[in-house]
């Protein structure tokens, strides 16, 4: 009996000591996160609403600071979201001390300069959003070098958004090694040039790719929808307003999950592939090239933008039979012929119709008065 009592006391004090040690360790780690946040605060030169200046105070727990989320299990910072605050400043090296960080979002601010080397330590990071800042070319090149130096840089990353910044140069090949990437946004970096790495299209988990409004060149790979017998899950392909050449990939229809296809305002040549009519999930289609008859086979199409596509010839009558269509843009081409008299019946949901800057002839369409 005495032995059992002694054993119980030993277990009790051992557990008590373990809890105290664990609490001490947790406190130590949260202090590391706190110091990293204070380092970030110190580099912010403009805080228009003084939110961080007032709220990020050592008088309260880090986990109660605005934009900060802590995990229940480890009591560490797991998310930092300080978007839309109008902040001006740079990102400190201490950002790499958030060893449990899964989400980092600083979009719609005015952060500038480069990304610190220590960003590569965040191996739990799944979501990055740096859109609408003033990050420089150096920031982008450093992101490339970080990945090259460490195979484990950010391999769990699912969302990478660095749109609307001042990035220039080429898209690093190493982004193709982000095997769990689902969303990639590098839009509106006008000086982003050269070819799109074909490895990007080999990421079987990729659902959205938005590279709109850059200066990208080269051809799109014709096997971009093939993933070694795995069906493509790509839903959004937005590459408009670049300098892409060649032809639109003939097997684009194999990306059967596509709902938005935006390839307009490039330098593609030839016809739009006839098999485009097999993209039965697509709702928004913006292309350049001759209009195939099969485009009328898209049962869910709501927006069709074929403006400024150097289109010639007649408009296929099937276009005017897409009953789901709300927006039809065919302006700034060299289209000829007349409009069918039944157009108003075939497009009962049309809200916007632009046909200007063409060579259309015939009578003014009477359906306009009923639209």
Automatic annotation (TrEMBL):
<dbReference type="InterPro" id="IPR052941">
    <property type="entry name" value="StomDev_PlantInt_Reg"/>
</dbReference>
<keyword id="KW-0732">Signal</keyword>
<dbReference type="Pfam" id="PF08263">
    <property type="entry name" value="LRRNT_2"/>
</dbReference>
<dbReference type="InterPro" id="IPR013210">
    <property type="entry name" value="LRR_N_plant-typ"/>
</dbReference>
<protein>
    <recommendedName>
        <fullName>Leucine-rich repeat-containing N-terminal plant-type domain-containing protein</fullName>
    </recommendedName>
</protein>
<keyword id="KW-0433">Leucine-rich repeat</keyword>
<feature type="signal peptide">
    <location>
        <begin position="1"/>
        <end position="22"/>
    </location>
</feature>
<dbReference type="InterPro" id="IPR032675">
    <property type="entry name" value="LRR_dom_sf"/>
</dbReference>
<dbReference type="Pfam" id="PF00560">
    <property type="entry name" value="LRR_1"/>
</dbReference>
<feature type="domain" description="Leucine-rich repeat-containing N-terminal plant-type">
    <location>
        <begin position="32"/>
        <end position="70"/>
    </location>
</feature>
<keyword id="KW-0677">Repeat</keyword>
<dbReference type="InterPro" id="IPR001611">
    <property type="entry name" value="Leu-rich_rpt"/>
</dbReference>
